[in-house]
Amino acid sequence: MSHRFTSQIEVAGPAGERYDEILTPAALAFIARLDNEFAGRRRELLDERRLRREKLASGEEVLDFRPETRWIRNDDSWQVAPAAPGLEDRRVEITGPTDRKMTVNALNSGAKVWLADFEDATSPTWSNIVGGQLNLFDAIRRDIDFTTESGKRYTICDNPATIVVRPRGWHLVEKHLRIDGRPVSASLVDFGLYLFHNARQLLARGSGPYFYLPKLENHLEARLWNDVFRLAQQELGIPQGTIRATVLIETITAAFEMDEILYELREHAAGLNAGRWDYIFSIIKNFGDAGADFVLPDRAEVTMTAPFMRAYTELLVQTCHKRGAHAIGGMAAFIPSKDPEANALAFEKVRQDKEREARDGFDGSWVAHPGLVPVCREVFDEVLGGWPNQLGRTREDVSVTAEDLLNVASAGGEVTEKGLRANINVALRYVDSWLRGTGAAAIFNLMEDAATAEIARAQVWQWIRNGTKLDDGTAVTDSLVRTMLDEELASIRADLGPEAKLDDAREIFVETALGEKLPSFLTTGAYARYLTDLA
C-alpha cells in the first residue's frame, strides 16, 4: 500500500497503470477545495437524516408535505433550465458500471443515455473507482476499445449514448483519499474527478458534464449539490449552468419534496427518475417498526401497479412536467438468456411495464441490458411519434395526497417461504459478488445491484421484527431464518465453488438482517473491513 501526499490529500490506495493520469496534483487539489468547503455541511445533513429517521420510527414525526415550502409547490411561475445538448431525447437509458466492456457496450447500445454508475452497480474497490474514471476519460476522447475472448474487437460507434455519471451518495466516503486523516466524500471524489478531467472536452464535443444524483432525502441535500456545482464551475472557469443533474427519487422522504428538489437545482436540473428498488428499501428503513400496515409482501409482488407506487410515479411525472423537467421511468432488470420461452415471457413483461410508463407520461425509461434497448425504444417511439419527449403532458388529472404515498398496505400480496428463501439466497449471492469486486451481478436472469441486497435483507429484518406469518401460517422468526440461511448457503456454495466469499457474505447478512437495528450493508463494520481488504 503506497502513501503519498499531494495537494492536501493523502492517496492511501495502491498505484496502478495510468492512475497518475487521473490522480493528478491539480485534480486532487480541486477535490480538496470542494471537500474542505462542504465537509461540514455534509456531516450536518447526514446527522439530520439520522435524527429524522428516528423521529419517523418512533412516531414523533408524521411524514407529510412540508408546510414551510408550500410556496414553492404553489408557485406556478418557475421552471428548470431548458434541456441541455444530448438530453433533449431520453426515451431509452441504459445503466451499468464503468468497466471497460460495459463502457463500450453501453455507448454502442442504441440507447440515448448511458448512466455510467459509480454507485449501486459498482463495488467501490480502488481499482474500480480509478479504472472507471480512466474508461470514461478514454471514451470521451474516443480512445477506447474492447476485445472479446474470441478476439472480436469493439470500438465506439459514431453516435454513442450521452454519458450521465452517477457518483456515490452523500452517506459514503472514499477511504483511499484522506485530508488530515479523514476520508473524503465519495460523492465529491466521483463527481470531481470526472468533471475536472472531462468538462471542457465534453463541451467541445457539443455535450456537457451530466450527472445522476442518488439517495437524496430532502431539498437541503439538493441545495448542497447545487452549491457544489456553482463552486466547481467557478473554479474551472466554465459557465454557470453547464452542469446538469437528474435526481433519483428513491427515498420516501424525497417523494414529499420533489418540487423543492427541482427548485433548489433549477439552474442545473435535468429531471427526476423513479428509482423503484431503493424507494421500496427506503420505506422499510423508515417504517420497518411501524406495524403491519407497512409490512411489504414478497419482493416479486411489489409491482409498479400497486396503488402506493402508482401514486409516487404519477406525482413524479406531474411534478416534472409542470416544471419543464424530464421524468424518467424505472429499471427493466431482465437479462436475456438462451431459453426462448423464458425470453418471450420476460420481454412481454418488460413491454407491459414500459407501455404503462409511456402512457403515464414518462419521457423515457431504464434498461439494464443492451438486449432490452429495442423493446423500450419501440414502446416510446409509438407514444412519442416525432416528439423527443412528453413535456407537454402536464398530468393535471393527477392528485396525490400524503395518505396515497404512505398507503403501503395497498400492495396486498403475501409473504411466502419461496419469497423468504429468495431474499436470503439473492442477498448472499449479491454480497459475495460485491466482495469479489463486481457490483452488477447477474442472478437468476436479473441484473441485481446494491439496492437488491438492501431490499432482500431489509425485508427479512422487517418480517422478523413484525412476527409476520408466511402464507402457510408459519411465523418468520430469527430461528427460522438462521435455519434457512444455512440451507441456502450450502446450496449456493455448491454452485459457486471455493472462490466464493460466502462466509463473509453470511457475516454481513447476519449483521444487517438479524440484528436489533437495520443498518445499510454499505455502512456496517463488515463493509469497512472488507473495503479495506479490497483496496
Automatic annotation (TrEMBL):
Q: Which CDD domains match?
A: malate_synt_A
List, for all copies, the residue spans of the domain called Malate synthase TIM barrel: 162-407
For this chain, the family text in UniProt reads: Belongs to the malate synthase family.
- Enumerate the spans annotated as Malate synthase C-terminal domain: 415-528
Q: Which reaction does it catalyse?
A: glyoxylate + acetyl-CoA + H2O = (S)-malate + CoA + H(+)
**Pathway it acts in?**
Carbohydrate metabolism; glyoxylate cycle; (S)-malate from isocitrate: step 2/2
Q: What is this protein called?
A: Malate synthase
Which keywords belong to this entry? Answer: Glyoxylate bypass, Transferase, Tricarboxylic acid cycle
| Cross-referenced NCBIfam families | malate_syn_A (TIGR01344)
Q: Which PANTHER family match?
A: MALATE SYNTHASE, MALATE SYNTHASE 1-RELATED
The EC number(s) given in the record are 2.3.3.9
Residues forming the Malate synthase N-terminal domain are: 10-69
